[in-house]
Amino acid sequence: MPLAAALRTAARECKLAAPIFSDEQASQGLAITAELCAHFQPPATSAQAASLLLQLPADLLCGILSRLGIRDIACLAATCRSLCRDAPAPPPPPRQIGPVEAELRRRAEARGLDVGSSLPEGATSWVACLLKRSRRDAQRRQAPLAAESYCSIFVDTAGRLLTCGRDLDSTGLGHALDPAADPTLCREIGPPTPVPSMQGRRIVSVATSNGHCLALSIEGDVYSWGGGSYGALGHGDRGTRMVPSRIESLSRIERIAVGQPWTSAAIDEKGWLFTWGKASSSDLDEDEYGNLLEDEIEGPSGLGYELNAETDRQLTPKKVDALSQERVVGVALGYGFTLAVTDAGAVFSFGFNMEGGLGHGLSRSEVLPRRIEALAQTERRFIAVAAGMCHALALTEEGELYGWGREDAYGWGREDANGHEREQRTPQRIAALIGQRVKLVNANEYTSCAVTEKGELFTWGAMSADGSIGHEESPATPMRVAALSGVKIAAVAIGVTHTLAADADGVVWVFGQPSALALGASGPEGNAAVLTPTPIPTLRVRVFNSP
Q1: Residue range(s) occupied by CATH 2.130.10.30 in the chain
Q2: Which residues pair with 501 in a beta bridge?
Q3: Per-residue pLDDT at 492
Q4: What are phi and psi of 29, to 5 degrees?
């Protein structure tokens, strides 16, 4: 039936139904119905009919529409949009926030995180979203392993600080020197042993280099010990400390890092970066052909700010003001340079550009932080960085790993540790790990490592003859440690002479030079290197498993 005819029929039926309405409704309805009928001779267009229908009382209009078939209603809707216009919906009531979400929001805001007003794409729960972010930030904070040249540092499941190995300069182990002991003799600690002065404190993260160490407590306090000649301990003096001492000027810290030569860094809960230690770095110059010369030159270290000309060291932690507008979430210290990654996924570098470690190409040095343009152009969000003597790594949120710089700075014939077959002055994606989703990266002077989402450990670089990277050769590109096949690695620390890897259960596997391991000074094979990863039977460290 044509729409106009259907409307005419409906109007006549409504006219007959007029007694059920009030006198006013019936009078108004009859007048409009009469006008409708007049328009239907000849039949009115749908638009004309609709304009008249809109003048009807709501009840009468519903009565007319109720008498139309579904095809006629569809036709009417298609030809007259005004009949389909919904009344403005009332504003939704304010969303009720439960106590769990309120507490998670409070913690995020206290750390300067921008939570936002809408859920991320794909998320269905604010609580789940905030918990995931808090877990990710906590995972960034925790590092239960650290490897120095001759000793190892651990954080067990109870939060205790433990050390073991050989202390050549009486600084790395954190234990007070026995008054009756000969200070000229090397101390040795076999199995991991709790540091007595740190009993009762819960530690979440440790960091070390060849000379000094840092430990971070669950309250956000930082403790340092070791050599303090250049102020790397952060106590305002140059003294050596045998046992851990709290750095009074730091609080609410969430991330720590140490580097060479003699620098330290910390990130607080607001994302502010603090650095201290040696303010200048030396390197060998190059001729026009890129050959190393014998003359040493001085350049800025990775402190990120200018110091007056009368000093070459910063004795206490100082904020890197050039990054005050950024929320820094990760930091790595190389040999005289620093990498910082922000919550927005940008990577900055500063310091001495030895062999391209800054990632800016041929630029010599950067006193202040400068964003690495080659990484910005990838349009990737970076979440972690690592640095060696003069090579560096950056990890994306998608698990892609980029490397640059050159390991062989002094012509010692060592393999590159940047993950490529050759020197890279600017960041390039590491081809050997394409197809692998990397979740953790770590580096030392001459070596690098990566852990994939499957828990597989890849290592590369120099020093393989002592078993420090788990291979009999020195691969220039990432190679999986076959001896750990079937073991899911959740944390790793790679040192100059040995490597520590914790599995998903917190069991620590060690390989490399026995003097730095928890296997005693001689190891299971005399003084030979430990080539096969060996678990420490008496130790469990706290690790984060993938959610």
Answers
A1: 137-540
A2: 492, 509
A3: 95
A4: -65, -40
**Which conformational region is residue 487 in: left (phi greater than 0), alpha (psi within -120 to 50 degrees), or beta?**
beta
Task: Give the bridge partners for 215, in sequence order.
Answer: 206, 223
Pair 466, 513: CB distance under 8 Å: yes
Instruction: Return d(Cα 547, Cα 524) in angstroms, integer.
Output: 36
What is the per-residue pLDDT across 239-296, written as a single tens digit (0 to 9) for each?
889 999 999 999 999 999 998 768 999 999 889 999 999 877 654 444 443 444 444 4
> For residues 499 and 510, is the Cβ–Cβ distance under 8 A?
yes
pTM of the model: 0.75
Distance CA 357, CA 425 (A): 7
Please check whether the domain covering 137-540 is classified as CATH 3.30.460.10. Answer: no
Q: What DSSP element (H or E) covers 53?
A: helix 46-53
Q: Quick check: bond before 42 cis, omega within 30?
A: yes
Distance CA 480, CA 455 (A): 11
> Nearest Cα to 232, choosing from 264, 192, 203, 255?
264
Q: Each residue of 463-513: pLDDT tens digit? A: 655 667 887 777 888 999 999 999 999 999 998 888 999 999 999 999 887
